[in-house]
Amino acid sequence: MHQPRRILFIDDDAGLRRLVEKLLGRRGHTIVSAASGADGIEKAKEGGFDLIAVDHYMPEMDGLECLIELRKLEGCPPIIYVTGSEESSVAVAALKAGAAEYVVKSVGDEFVELLEQSFAHALANERVRQAKDDAEERLREANVRLETLLREVNHRVSNSLQLVSAMVTMQAKLLPDSAARQALADTERRIQAIAQVHRKLYTSEDVDAVAMDEYLKALVEELQATWSTPVNPRTILLEAEALHLHTDKAVSLGVIVNELVTNACKYAYKDGHAGEIRVRFARDGEAPKFRLEVEDDGCGLDGEGPRGTGLGSKLISAMAKSLSSAINYDRDHAGCRAVLVAPL
Fold first, then answer.
1. Is pLDDT above 80 for 206?
2. How does strand 328-329 pair with strand 336-343?
3. Are 14 and 35 in contact (CB under 8 A)?
4. Which candidate, 62, 49, 131, places its Cα nearest to that of 97?
5. Mean pLDDT of the chain
6. What percent of the chain has pLDDT over 70?
7. Rounded to an integer, what distance in angstroms lies between the CA atom of residue 293 and that of residue 298?
8. Residue/partner pairs of 183-188 with CB below 8 Å, 24 or more apart
9. Does residue 65 surpass a pLDDT of 70?
């Protein structure tokens, strides 16, 4: 049994309007008729209709013009396009303009039957569309809540790392041994490199990917401030493309840059001499990979890798492995050039 509906029927044919009112009225529907497109639009503005049927051939304002104006109304119900023409171009034009269904006029009860079937199809499609819209809206709301939560998590992680960093700094000041103080200072810089990632995440629109040009700029500025002194001036230059990496990749890359730049600042140049360290980060060719280069013009490599306690080299290797890659050293470079190529 068909569910009764309130229907606006727009057609300049008075006889057809009476027929539709009579036959659909017998089936329990309430029919409101309009003799022209303009009249139909005015009645549609009053609202309260489940469906609208619009005839194609009408004087002054034809069906397509009427359809377009009806679609502009807020909360416009599904529209059935009615015509005596079987031309496919008319159907295509009506559907492109926003009609939910298309019905060709026929004689008597058959036309009304087709019209009612089109009503059922249009309403079913409308329910599906509404369900889809509701699901998408719920998904958008869930994403907003998730982004807010992730931003808050990143904020708290950053604050916690800042607290740990401050504790490490305080502990270092209490130690009499210079080597121990230096080790804690290196640890504090590693913590800061990770904290910087989370600061970028909670202050940006993207809460799960880091803009590497901005992140590396902030990291290099911190390293420059740490290592460049009047006695041992260091210049750290950065060239970085605006690529985005997921959080874990950004952390790994940040630790690698911190270790390589720190090592160059410590060991590449003699005390009392100025030195330059260059950091480059960019997409590697056409492949979905990135390339990192850290180089200096200093004394070069000693043995298999950079000098130091060995912890930094182990960290670099571990972080490179987490990026599904490895650090390679360019033996032909006069100083030290470390190269990493990894998947984006």
1. no
2. antiparallel
3. yes
4. 62
5. 86
6. 96
7. 15
8. 183/309, 186/262, 186/311, 186/312
9. yes
- Asked if 2 contacts 24 with a C-beta cutoff of 8 angstroms, the reply is no
pLDDT at 292: 95
Query: How many other CB atoms sit within 10 Å of the CB of residue 292?
Result: 25
Q: How far is Cα 164 from Cα 221, in angstroms, rounded to an integer?
A: 21
What single string gives the DSSP state of each residue in 6-18? EEEEE-S-HHHHH
Task: Give residues with Cβ within 8 angstroms of 320, minimum separation 6.
Answer: 252, 256, 326, 327, 340, 342
**Do the beta carbons of residue 295 and residue 277 sit within 8 Å?**
yes
Asked if 217 contacts 281 with a C-beta cutoff of 8 angstroms, the reply is: no
Question: How far apart are the C-alpha atoms of 157 and 159, rounded to whole Å?
Answer: 5
Closest CA to 58 of 87, 88, 38, 31: 38
For residue 314, give every residue at least 6 positions away whose Cβ sits within 8 Å of its Cβ, in sequence order, or none.
none
Q: Each residue of 41-56: pLDDT tens digit?
A: 999 999 899 999 999 8
Q: Write out the H or E segment, with its range, that includes residue 51.
A: strand 51-55
Structural tokens at position 201? 């995440």
Structure tokens at 119: 């009503």
Domains of the chain: 6-105 (3.40.50.2300), 208-344 (3.30.565.10)
Reported as type and span, the H/E element at residue 280 is: strand 275-283
Residue 106 vs residue 246, higher pLDDT: 246
Structure-token pair, residue 140: 């958008």
pTM here is 0.60
What's the pLDDT at 1? 45
Q: What is the DSSP letter of 246?
A: E
Structure confidence by residue, pLDDT tens digits, 276-334: 999 999 999 888 999 999 999 988 876 555 555 578 888 899 999 999 999 999 888 88
The CA distance from 83 to 55, in Å, is 6
**What was the pLDDT predicted at 145?**
85
